[in-house]
Amino acid sequence: MFAEIVSNLSLGLSVAGSPEGFLFLVIGAFLGMIVGLFPGFGPAAGIAVLIPMTFGLTPTIAIIMLAGIYYGSMYGGTITSILINTPGESATVASTIDGYPLAQKGRAGPALVMQAIASFFGGTVGVILITALAPSLANFAASFGPSEYFLIIAVGLLMLTTMMGDNKFKGFISALIGFAIGTVGVDVMSGQQRYTFGSPELIGGVYFVAVAIGLFGIGELLHCIFNGQHREPAKRLRVSFRDKEFWPSKTDYHESRWTFWRGSVIGFIAGVLPGSGATLGSIIGYSVEKKVAKDPEKFGKGEMRGLVAPEAANNAASAGAMVPLLSLGIPGSGATAVLLGAFLMWGLQPGPLLIVNDPEFVWGLIASMYLGNMILIAMSIFAIPLFVKFLDIPYVNVVPVIVLLCVIGAFAINASIVETWILVGSGLIGFAMKKYGYSPAATVLALVLGSMAEETFLQTYIISQGTMSLFWERPVSLVLSIILVAVILVPIALNLINRSRKRQSAMQG
Amino acid sequence: MKKWFAAALLVLAIGYTIYGLTTLTLVTSSGRPAAGFFPLVIGVLLILSTAVNLWGDVREWRAARQNGVAPRHLADPEAEAKADTFGVDAHAIDGGPEFGRDVFIVFAYICAFVAIMKIVGALIAMVMFMLAFLFTFNRAHPVSNVIYSLALPGFLYGLFKILLNASLPTSPFGF
User: Fold this and answer.
1) Number of structural domains, chain A?
2) Can you tell me the mean pLDDT for A313-323?
3) CA spacing 20 to 30 A to A436: which of A58, A136, A342, B152?
4) Which helix (H) or strand (E) holds A194?
5) For A358-379, b where at least 16 C-beta lie within 10 A, e where not — what string?
6) pLDDT single digits (tens) A23-62
7) What is the pLDDT of residues B89-126, one digit of tens each?
């Protein structure tokens, strides 16, 4: 087993470590850091907008670069969390709680270095766990039938919507919208055209890249404009690693030695679970660290462990999210849904057979994540002053870059003006969805998984002769069905209990 | 606007379902689900959920009008979830003054950009979009606006057209 992993990894390293692989890995990691830096522009948007830039590459190199953008954004997002109290993306929100107070205390340098080390630690632990778990899970998943796949998709989408607090219901609607868009085109079972309105451009379906770029790229951009980001002056910040105070003290390392491990393991588990991802991972990582600390009162006031825990967690989670994506072909978040879309665009069908059929790709990608984390820690420490300089660019100058990349990128995919208009329409819908509490991530996830959901649902229906008994007759399906019911019923039950408690206390009061 | 968006979703859901019912086969002659089956399931769920959603939004709007309280700022779902977790107002995470007019202007510029792209070519359309955008929102720096409006489209055109060999619309002048 161990020898097999080593041989697979050396195969992967020969792909990721090739001059071309290494070059595009560095470019991806660098772009990921920049994507993470700009508030309101997350990894999903970054990957979607930059997909067209990978056109001239081989599938493996393209995905290595896009994955670099994905986990690179986790490193970049914390720089603004620490320096200006504004998380670059949602997974680094928890890092502001202690990161910014550390900067206020004059410890921005040590905070930036420790976040880079924690990110590297979490990312590396995550990739080691992928190496160990992804092939086993793929072997296990080889026995899955349509009912299991349908239930995994349903659980993933429900978990994603459950994460939306008060907006669960709107998340559910967002997922249904994605499924509805996914039905456009030719039906794979019967060959009948659906919702094409006679347009030859719609026979192949609504191309997910245009919708994803619109919802995430243009939609997020319009939302940032709505919040006035384009009218804000540039942040003038200076950080130099030549300063004596730049490096962390021995106490920082000593106090955080177990935090690295706890954050990484918690983050990885959160990443593997569909729908939860890096944001939840970092929040749980922070909460657990505060709970186990002997001095929880220090948290929130500039405690290094309060920064290390979410940083290790969000990077481990971004690695963990690759496990269901690679072994089951099922993404758990908006960013991994866009990655799945990119896989499909390149003719790669993630799932149990991918590791068997295309080991060079899978192990090349996994090996690139080891290398990527090494590149990112070096970039995160020694190029901090350079990345801080990026914050000098006013957002008003960033807007046209994003618009041009989105529009030209969407057109260039199939040289289709219809798809470009789909991008524009999706952008407006994405803005409205963000503004009114819907979830563009759930829509994209459902759109990408729509055809698979339909196919597996109908297969289950046909095999069980209309009774759907496969959902409870097969052991794995039964467990998944129980989880599905629990995901629906537990929040309702908790809500009812809370209400009755409130009523009781109101009557007593 | 929130309730109007919810209403638009309900109308679209009804349209989607009716169109599916009238144009697609629901069940094959052998009794198996056909091309219209899954869209019907999605359509019915969409109608039910968007109707309940609209009802909730209208109720919220009415309550806000009766109480004379301005509706609370609507942050994005991620910010709402984060705010719930941290027990703070979502507005503190993702909010502040709102610039709806600017959104309208930028969206109009994007539409114009896409509309003229096929006519004047990608390069000229990009330059025109950038000039319009920068001279609307960054008037204080005219010289840098012009340089930026020529340099960035030139770079992107070169990257996509020459390096990536992508197909982009060309102008009557051949570029």
Assistant:
1) 1
2) 89
3) A342
4) strand A193-194
5) bbebbbbbbbbbbbbbebbbeb
6) 999 999 999 888 888 766 778 888 888 888 887 788 899 9
7) 444 444 456 788 899 999 999 999 999 998 999 999 99
> In this structure, is residue A48 part of a structural domain?
yes
Which residue from A496, A495, A477 is spatially nearest to A485, judged by alpha carbons?
A: A477
Report pTM.
Answer: 0.81
Residue A204 DSSP symbol: T
Which one of B24, B52, B78, B111 would you mutate to disrupt binding with A, by most A Cβ within 10 Å of its Cβ?
B78
**Residue labelled with tokens 């563009």:** A440
b/e map B6-17, b = 16+ CB within 10 Å: bbebbeebeebb
Chain A interface mutation, best of B18, B106, B170, highest count of A Cβ atoms under 10 Å: B106
Facing residue for B53 by CB, picked from A170, A223, A434: A170
- Cα separation of A487 and B28, whole Å? 34
Q: Which residue of B has its CA nearest to A220?
A: B76
Does A506 reside within a domain?
no
| Residue A199 within any structural domain of the chain | yes
Residue listed under structure tokens 């109101």: A506
Q: Do A177 and B103 touch (CB under 8 A)?
A: no
Q: Which residues of B touch A179 (CB under 8 A)?
A: 42
Residue linked to tokens 């001279």:
B135
Q: Which value, to the nearest 10 degrees, does the dihedral of the CA atoms of residues B149, B152, B153, B156 take?
A: -170
Of B9, B33, B159, the CB nearest to A173: B9
- Residue A305 structural domain: 2-473
Rounded Cα distance, A135 and A141, in Å: 10
Task: Note whether A363 and A135 are within 8 A (CB).
Answer: no
Q: Which residues pair with B27 in a beta bridge?
A: B33
Angle at A47 between CA A46 and CA A52, to 5 degrees: 110
Q: Of the candidates A392, A406, A365, A502, which has an alpha carbon nearest to the alpha carbon of residue A41?
A: A406
CB contact under 8 A, A227 and B95: yes
Structural domain contains residue A23: yes
